[in-house]
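Re: your question about SDR family NAD(P)-dependent oxidoreductase

S., sorry for the slow reply, the queue was backed up all week. Below is exactly what I fed in.
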Amino acid sequence: MILKGKTAVVFGAGGHLGQHIADRFEAEGASVFRASNGPVDGSTPKSAQVDATDEVAVDAYLDQVAEEQGSIDVVVNMAGVAPASYNHGKPAAEVTHEQFMMPLAVDTASQFITAKSAYRHMSEKGSGVIILNTSTLAKVGSPWSPALTASHAATEGLMRSLAHEYGPAGVRVLGVRSEAMPDSPTIEYTFATMGANMGMGFDEMKGFIEQNKTALKKLPEASDTAAVFAYAASDMASFLAGTMINNSAGHIVD
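Result:
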């Protein structure tokens, strides 16, 4: 119960990894509020439909949570656009300028919006954790992924900037950089699309990444990555700030 007594907000909680993170936070004792750009299951009391790229909507939602709970301890943002919409996995020549900008305008920009809004509340009480999310694309320079590579690299730069700006107020800003999670719909699509460029099916692509790219010769599932987010949000990680936790199975060797 490493998050017992904490209030956490997970944006993008309707997605595969977002759901796993919210569930793990709850399992660790946190009171979790789930926000999603799309429809939310009405049977879940602490959930709401919130566009994470809408500053006014995000401010209003976090104000509501803070008023109800008294404070906000953790904010995570997993919001993003579907990879097919920006031709992820296709050659760069097939990606338009509009498509290239999509992850930057949604994934990265929403990270800035939710972090900025969370800081208003966390700085008042002198503590809090803001966790950003990226992938190995930010470091490895993978082909057929120009838009998301640029977005994730930008998000890591944003994390470093905010960590130094928000740290003096007692607010930890850090990130989790994960390897591909084959159980997620996004990676199912990515491996199928990228694999087509190499004449491989999903299983062949998965095996290729595991055996040729990772030190551990295996890939994490969403539940594995969610556990790292829980650790990052906990007091056990109280001196982790301005860093990306490298949950890449050794694909990235720092």
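The domain at 7-84+96-180+220-247 is CATH 3.40.50.720 (Rossmann fold). The chain has a mean pLDDT of 94.

Happy to talk it through on Thursday.
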